[in-house]
Amino acid sequence: MQESDPFYIGWQDIKPGRFMKNTVWVFSLIGAIVAMGWVMGQQPFANGVFYYGQLRTFEGVLVMKPAPMLKVPNGTGWNSILLVGAGKHGAESTIEELWDILEQPLNGRWVALEGTLIEDDGKQVLELTNGVASFQGWLGHDTTYVAEFRNLGWQKLAGEILDPKCAFGVMKPGCGKTHRSCASLCIAGGIPPVLRMQDARGNINYVLIVDQNGESLHDRITPYLADQLYICGELKQVDDWLVLFTGLGDDVQRVAPWWGDQIVMCH
């Protein structure tokens, strides 16, 4: 005699095995769908790396414009390492303090600097973690640094203005007020602003932003941080960095919050 299918009575303490199996399967499927939807709705994971606790020494020519950088020879040209201070501070105050201690400028000189490396999308930032103690000495190289300039003319670019320290790896960029506040504090502290651009294929590039005279924009750029926007100005290639010289004002136009649809670089 064939055993009949179990019949579930809601008030019974023990549920039939087949009912339990079906219930577990249904809830597992729902859970998997919900989890997949949540993951797909997130922003892509950042590739930036902050080598926290790993001090390294780099040798190169220190330059101050368009932003403090260490120019490291790579055999065919110069690799530019953007310099920042510890915390939410730029490198200028540390370098100026070194000038006073050493009683001579560092600009254009071969030096050895120790710090914590931050890198993302082919760009490198060196945090002068220990302040003036980051200076490891003068170097006697004969090679003279000569910047490679290329004028790319008046351009209209699209992207998001960030601080390179946090965005490259110290903090994983988020969205909204926290994201904007972090960028505001870093840039107010002297870290140079950059425009993060992404084209339709997902290729990312960064552009340093300075005023029309190549100086810092200071608090004039703060209202435009962490929003998608168009920004116009004279674009130049300086070694391996793009630099945009802009007057802001009418040269910038918001498009949408940065967490909206991606926009591509203008040509």
Describe what you observe in this structure.
By secondary structure, this protein is α+β, with helices and mostly antiparallel strands. It has 4 helices and 12 strands. The strands form 2 sheets. It has a 5-stranded mixed beta barrel with strand order 1-2-3-5-4. The chain has a 5-stranded mixed β-barrel with strand order 7-8-9-11-10. A hairpin with a 5-residue loop joins strand 1 (49-63) and strand 2. The protein is globular. The relative contact order is 0.14. Mean pLDDT is 83; it is low at 7-11, 38-45 and 258-267.
Strand-helix topology:
Layout: H1 17-40, E1 49-63, E2 69-73, E3 78-85, H2 92-102, E4 110-120, E5 123-128, E6 135-138, E7 149-162, H3 164-170, H4 176-188, E8 194-198, E9 204-210, E10 227-238, E11 241-245, E12 252-257
Parallel strand pairs: 3-5, 9-11
Antiparallel strand pairs: 1-2, 1-4, 2-3, 4-5, 4-6, 7-8, 7-10, 8-9, 10-11, 10-12
Features:
5-stranded mixed barrel; 267 residues; 2 domains; globular; OB fold (Dihydrolipoamide Acetyltransferase, E2P); single chain; alpha+beta
Summed up, what is this model?
This protein is α+β, with helices and mostly antiparallel strands and 267 residues long.
Strand content: 35-45%
Q: How far apart, in Å, are the first and last alpha carbons?
A: 80 Å
Percent range for helical residues? 10-25%
- SS elements, strand count: 12
| Overall domain count | 2
What profile does the largest beta sheet have?
Answer: 5 strands, mixed, barrel
Structural class: alpha+beta
Indicate the CATH class of the largest domain.
Answer: Mainly Beta
- Global outline: globular
- CATH topology category name of the largest domain: OB fold (Dihydrolipoamide Acetyltransferase, E2P)
Query: How many helices in DSSP terms?
Result: 4
CATH architecture of the largest domain: Beta Barrel
Order of helices and strands: HEEEHEEEEHHEEEEE
Overall mean pLDDT stands at 83
Unreliably modeled segments: 7-11, 38-45, 258-267
Strand line-up of the largest beta sheet:
1-2-3-5-4
Radius of gyration: 26 Å
